[in-house]
Design goal:
By secondary structure, the chain is α+β, with helices and mostly antiparallel strands. Helices cover 25% and strands 25% of the residues. It has one domain: CNF1/YfiH-like putative cysteine hydrolases (4-Layer Sandwich). The chain is globular and about 55 Å long. The two termini are 25 Å apart.
Length: 263
């Protein structure tokens, strides 16, 4: 099995890729489709073709994967994207951590290996958004930025959104230093509900709960709690199923969390 499918809404396909069942090897093994992590290019090509078949997409180019840089720039996928040259398409997706679209039959998604993947679905305007929410993106406001982008593009109302918090590292496996907490504090966030002390011989550290942070951000934006699917799976603890940079090192594959609007 190479996909975990999530029940977000009947009119979308939502999923996260899993490690088994692909062609990559070593710490990239087996099912990595991310081309920016020094994996073998032929293995990546074959894995992308496999994902295309699993999702029953018409062409591998319909798997949209941005080059993420832990910021909050977004890309709105329109039909003219498919008229671009391959180089222009790559340029359009460079430095992008949020992707949104209202095109059916196309998969948008983001890559993670411990960060939080967020999927949004507007059930009124039949539009979707995928957000890369690592701690840097969280501090910068990735979640409200994605919702704002949907509001501007599709007149989305948060009360009509369905959201999914995908597999990511759990708080118990995510100790951070004061420099990370300081970034949250400088951005105006109260970190007290998000941290617990983590014993460390190298100095003060705290376990950071990104799941609670993201849940709060979604609800604060106006999404109803009953419309939020919270996948309680830790990428670190389930490293046989998911890639985990904290466990494997940064030179590893990436999980791809995506969403497809049904026609």
């Amino acid at each position: 099995m190479s996909l975990n499918r999530w029940q977000l809404h009947s009119r979308v396909t939502a999923f996260t890729t899993t490690r088994p069942g692909g062609y990559s090897q070593g710490e990239y093994g087996e099912f990595n489709i991310n081309p920016w992590v020094d994996d073998d290019s032929e293995a990546i090509r074959r894995n992308r073709q496999l994902l295309c078949r699993l999702l029953q997409l018409s062409d591998v180019s319909h798997i949209i994967l941005p080059h993420q840089v832990h910021r909050i720039e977004y890309f709105q996928l329109r039909r003219d994207y498919f008229d671009m040259t391959e180089d222009t398409q790559k340029q359009a997706l460079e430095g992008i951590d949020i992707v949104l679209t209202d095109l059916p039959g196309v998969c948008i998604g983001i890559s993670t290996a411990d960060c939080v993947p967020i999927l949004l679905y507007d059930s009124v305007h039949h539009a979707a958004c995928a957000i890369h929410a690592g701690w840097r993106g969280c501090v910068q406001g990735a979640i409200p930025k994605g919702i704002q982008a949907m509001q501007e593009a599709y007149s989305t109302q948060p009360k009509n959104l369905h959201a999914l918090i995908g597999p990511h590292i759990s708080a118990e496996r995510y100790p951070v230093g004061a420099e990370v907490l300081d970034e949250f504090i400088r951005a105006g966030f109260d970190v007290k509900p998000l941290i617990t002390p983590h014993p460390s011989p190298s100095g003060p550290r705290w376990n950071l709960d990104l799941r609670t942070f993201c849940l709060h951000e979604l609800q604060r934006a106006g999404i109803h709690p009953d419309s939020i699917v919270n996948i309680l799976q830790c990428t670190y603890n389930l490293s046989d199923l998911y890639f985990s940079a904290r466990r494997q090192g940064i030179a590893c594959g990436r999980n791809y969390t995506g969403i497809i609007l049904e026609r």
